[in-house]
Write a structure and sequence with these properties.
The chain is α+β, with helices and mostly antiparallel strands. It contains 18 helices and 22 strands. The chain folds into 3 domains: about 200 residues, Heat Shock Protein 90; about 160 residues, Ribosomal Protein S5, domain 2 (2-Layer Sandwich), CATH 3.30.230.10; about 160 residues, Rossmann fold, CATH 3.40.50.670. The longest helix is centred in the middle third of the chain and has 22 residues.
Length: about 625
């Protein structure tokens, strides 16, 4: 029962970093320490944006500690005129202490709350900062957010040798997991390099023993070309633009591409990703749409009765957009969407004028872009007049997680059942929308081997699969089947194999005609990527990797071979997933078949039945060390 006496004595006053340690969820994402790393990195990136840093190095150590080092000016070490403590001590030990509020030191910066690295210190069991400036090297240390060692000079360095190095170990008690997601950190660091042309970012993962380095000299255009890979683009090189004034900056790279595959559409504000877009994206799209409409009207390119919409123009466009604002406003604390209303008109005006000039200077490519938009408009009008796809039964709604394909020809259509939401997102970008549909599954589905067919659709995942297929569990015919190939796409590890097994069990037990007719396939994503110079190879397993490496060494021993091991589908970017797993020419699929006399049913029963735990144990003891089992 609460204390009935409520007096001034009951009121707690939290000082220093106590508020953060008391309620960490109010200040950062507590699912993992990744956000802490990016707070420190953002400090270094702000130095780069201001023109003082050229290189940032990040290391993930074996004990899950992190070090971030830059060659910027170095944090201030002189005494603060009012607080009478060194500037670096203020930065790490006081909330709302920073140099980003007045825009004197940093015109554009990602965070304006002044709680960044102080939160890192608050939620770390250990933190050490080393500063090089004015010919000296200084160090200060903290333990459990409290100062352990005062700032002191520890060495002498050259006058031009400047920078800051922060080493810290997140306190596991504040997070759901103490492990830092190396993949997410790598993606975030690469994005920072993309948006700071000429900035070199190095990342070393001592746990997986991998190193990565990024430097995009040509900025957004260079990045977009690398992400797209080979293809037929209009124009051949991306349209690149940039506008800077005292209050804002806008830069972009865009290129059009024929075809139905998912397009790249990335946007950032002050180097922070904005996956939900916002006023900067809306402004650019509206401005450039107007520019293209005016170009078409002047040249009388639009047929009578056709009106171009923004979607018609942008449907086939790949773009990367970066905006910088002195005081950005976001929707929500996650900063996923820019809501600064005034900037929409600014972005629209800037992008319209810039694209209008480009269109009139490159009329041949401009007309090709115009014809793509016109074709989209005509297809849109035609599609609105069409009846629904014949295969969809009246009154039945397809699952919301299903990204369907355009074609209704069962001879060519494919459905990819993908493990995980992030991998599903990559697969949607990698697919050919004309004939490939994608539906993501949330991890392992229900083990349906011992579930009655009548009750199996009580599982939402199974119900969604059945609706997507157009079949009822226990069906005897495939009359309403909506896809010619059902492809199971899971990670190339043991968890992925387990998930694939559960899905195969579902089809074998409750959709047996689907297996008997040869409609079920298992996709085989690669486990390794091997690079030698500009040549890229993919290997399905360890044996294949060794063969490729041996061949490359026999051809050219002087060129260095780099090997990357994919930890999961989510680690592959859409272009890699398309090239290795989804394109008809490059992929490998295993067909699930039932031959006469096959004992799959009895074997699956032994593997998946709860009542046969003893048999399963015996099988594991005698045959569990085998890579494959032939019955």
């Amino acid at each position: 029962m609460a204390n009935s006496k409520y007096t001034a004595e009951s009121i707690e006053v939290l000082s220093g970093l106590e508020p953060v340690r008391k309620r960490p969820g109010m200040y950062t994402d507590t699912s993992s320490p990744n956000h802490l790393v990016m707070e420190v990195v953002d400090n270094s990136v702000d130095e780069a944006i201001a023109g003082y840093a050229k290189e940032i190095s990040v290391s993930l150590h074996k004990d899950n500690s992190i070090s971030v080092e830059d060659d910027g000016r170095g944090m201030p070490v002189d005494l603060h005129p009012e607080e009478k403590v060194p500037g670096v001590e203020l930065i790490f030990s006081r909330l709302h202490a920073g140099a980003k509020f007045s825009n004197k030191e940093y015109v554009f910066s990602g965070g304006l709350h002044g709680v960044g690295v102080s939160v890192v210190n608050a939620l770390s069991s250990y933190l050490k900062a080393e500063i090089k400036r004015d010919g000296s090297k200084f160090a200060i240390e903290f333990t459990d957010s409290l100062k352990k060692k005062d700032l002191k000079k520890v060495d002498s360095v050259g006058q031009r040798n400047t920078g800051t190095k922060v080493v810290f170990k997140p306190d596991a008690s504040f997070f759901d997991t103490e492990k830092i997601s190396s993949k997410n950190l790598s993606n975030a660091l690469r994005a920072k390099a993309v948006l700071c042309p000429g900035l070199t970012i190095k990342y070393k993962d001592e746990i997986s023993k991998t190193r990565e380095e990024w430097c995009y000299v040509d900025g957004l255009g260079d990045y977009l070309v690398n992400e797209l890979g080979e293809g037929l683009y209009i124009p051949e090189k991306p349209i690149v633009g940039e506008h800077i004034d005292k209050d804002s900056a806008l830069s972009w790279a865009l290129v059009w591409e024929r075809g139905e595959k998912e397009k790249i559409s990335e946007s950032y504000v002050n180097l922070i990703p904005t996956p939900q877009g916002g006023t900067h994206v809306n402004g650019m799209k509206s401005g450039m749409t107007e520019a293209l409409k005016e170009f078409c009207d002047y040249r009388k390119l639009i047929p009578r009765g056709v009106k171009l919409s923004s979607d018609d123009v942008w449907k086939n466009c790949n773009f990367v957009l970066s905006a910088k604002l002195t005081d950005p406003q976001f929707s929500g604390q996650t900063k996923e969407k820019l809501s600064s209303k005034d900037f929409q008109n600014v972005a629209s005006s800037i992008s319209k004028d810039s694209l209008a000039i480009w269109l009139n200077q490159h009329t041949e490519a401009a007309e090709e872009i115009a014809f793509i938009a016109i074709e989209n408009a005509q297809a849109r009008v035609k599609a609105s007049q069409k009846v629904e796809r014949k295969k969809i039964t009246k009154g039945i709604t397809l699952p919301g997680k299903l990204s369907d394909c355009v074609s209704g020809e069962i001879s060519e259509t494919e459905l990819f059942l993908v493990e995980g939401e992030s991998a599903g997102g990559s697969a949607k970008q990698a697919r050919n929308r004309q004939f490939q549909a994608v539906m993501s599954l949330k991890g392992k589905i229900l083990n349906t081997w011992e579930v009655d067919t009548d009750a199996v659709t009580q599982s939402q995942e199974v119900k969604d699969i059945a609706m997507a297929l157009g079949l009822e569990p226990g069906c005897r015919t495939l009359e309403n089947l909506r896809y010619g190939k059902i492809c199971i796409l899971a990670d190339a590890d043991t968890d992925g194999a387990h998930i694939a097994t559960l899905i195969c069990a579902l089809f074998l037990k409750h959709f047996r005609p689907l297996v008997e007719a040869g409609h079920v396939y298992i996709a085989q994503p690669p486990l390794f990527r091997i690079d030698q110079g500009k040549e890229v190879f993919y290997a399905l397993d360890e044996d294949e990797k060794e063969k490729i490496v041996k061949q490359l060494n026999s051809k050219n021993k002087q060129k260095k071979i780099e090997i990357q091991r994919f930890k999961g589908l989510g680690e592959m970017n859409p272009s890699q997933l398309r090239e290795t797993t989804m394109e008809l020419d490059g992929r490998r699929l295993l067909k699930l078949t039932l031959e006469k006399g096959n004992t799959s049913t009895s074997l699956m029963d032994m593997l998946l039945s709860k009542k046969r735990a003893g048999d399963r144990k015996n099988w594991l003891e005698t045959k569990g060390d085998l890579a494959s089992l032939n019955e």
